[in-house]
Amino acid sequence: GILRQYFPKGSDLSAHSKADLEWVSRQLNERPRQRLDFRTPIEEMDRLLLR
Fold first, then answer.
1. DSSP state letter for 32
2. Are 18 and 6 in contact (CB under 8 A)?
3. Which helix (H) or strand (E) holds 37?
């Protein structure tokens, strides 16, 4: 998946700093997704929680 754009398969995630992992997390959660009608996962979560 898209996580592999940042970390190759078999990567040891413990070798990366917490800041690096948080940066990647933010990048992934702020990326619009076609399956969410081009909303970001964060926007979709907000939409679902504020129903």
1. -
2. no
3. none
pLDDT digits (tens, 9 = 90+) for 13-44: 999 999 999 999 999 999 999 999 999 999 99
Rounded distance between C-alpha atoms, residue 25 and residue 19, angstroms = 10
How would you label 6-38 residue by residue, b for 16+ Cβ within 10 Å and e otherwise?
Answer: eeeeeeeeeeeeeeeeeebeeebeeeeeeeeee
Predicted TM-score (pTM) of the model is: 0.76
Q: Parse the chain into domains and list their residue ranges.
A: 2-50
pLDDT at 51 over 90: no
- 9 and 15 Cβ atoms separated by less than 8 Å: no
